[in-house]
Design brief:
Distance between the termini: 46 Å
Low-confidence stretches: none
Largest sheet: 7 strands, mixed
Strand order of the largest sheet: 1-2-6-10-9-8-7
Strand content: 15-25%
Number of domains: 1
Length: 281
């Protein structure tokens, strides 16, 4: 990894919540990220938050403004998904226990720190190194027909398995990646396409992604990781970070670590819901 990456990873604290799946509120992990980011901006450590969320459909703010978004939301709910609107960038993504989410929560270097490209490159590099033992080449660049499209779509063999978004605060920021690790990428793409088919109304196609069935696949489908790809991939991410951590850096970071109480996270989640739900009324 490059010099910038190493300087960040030597003090990066791992918060592994892969097995903490009892919270059904889809905004809970986003609220936790928000609170952790505030603390990081006040001198707290950089954090890698690994998490999964049961059967949730996370809309982007732009999605929530589509003319029939509420109708589409009701349809998604009928498929037994909990629906929420996230405050980070990006478009709609379905989450389930086969999707590994990575949140890199990092302090800004200075008030003018707007190096979006560098931050996305950091996430790309981390994921690329986590998959190096699979022997598969990870490409970077928008995948046509994929849901939540962007310049930093990550793909193998032309099919997307990961999208990256960002949320910036005054003194720190969050780079979030969803990694489709297990299950069918095609089924997830079909679900998102069904949402836009109902939400778009007469909107021009430039306002929402045109999702195709063959655009997305899971690591289980694309690599030799197999049916346990979610846990295997998460362990590989942790291994990449641990290989670059230093004892001194970790000791210093741990002394400044703060984890909010569950009630505080739930209150933040409710605040976020009230703030962003207005977009679909």
């Amino acid at each position: 990894m490059n010099e910038i990456t190493n300087s960040i990873l030597d003090t990066l604290v791992i918060l592994d919540r892969m097995n903490e799946i009892a919270e059904n509120d889809p905004l809970y992990p986003f609220a936790l990220d928000e609170l952790l980011c505030r603390h990081t901006g006040k001198g707290g450590p950089a954090i890698c938050h690994l998490w999964r969320q049961p059967r949730s459909f996370i809309m982007g703010m732009r999605d929530s403004r589509l003319p029939d978004a509420e109708t589409a939301r009701q349809w998604i709910s009928s498929q037994e998904y909990k629906v929420a609107i996230r405050n980070s960038g990006g478009a709609a993504v379905p989450l389930d226990l086969g999707v590994v989410n990575i949140s890199l929560i990092l302090p800004k270097q200075d008030q003018a720190d707007n190096h979006f490209h560098r931050d996305f490159e950091l996430m790309y590099t981390l994921i690329q190194h986590a998959l190096i033992n699979t022997g598969m080449h990870v490409d970077k660049g928008e995948v046509q027909g994929a849901y939540c499209p962007g310049d930093f779509d990550l793909s193998i063999g032309g099919r997307k398995f990961c999208g990256i978004a960002q949320r910036r605060q005054a003194h720190a920021y969050i780079v979030q990646a969803f990694v489709v690790a297990e299950g069918s990428g095609q089924e997830r793409a079909q679900l998102v396409r069904g949402f836009y088919d109902r939400a778009a109304g007469e909107s021009p196609s430039s306002l929402y992604p045109l999702v195709t069935d063959d655009s997305t696949a899971s690591l289980e489908e694309l690599t030799p990781l197999g049916s346990g790809a979610a846990r295997t991939f998460a362990e590989a991410v942790k291994r990449v970070i641990r290989d670059r951590q230093t004892t001194q850096g970790l000791s210093e970071a741990a002394s400044h670590l703060y984890l909010p109480e569950i009630t505080e996270v739930r209150e933040m989640a409710e605040s976020m819901r009230l703030r962003y739900e207005m977009n679909v009324t």
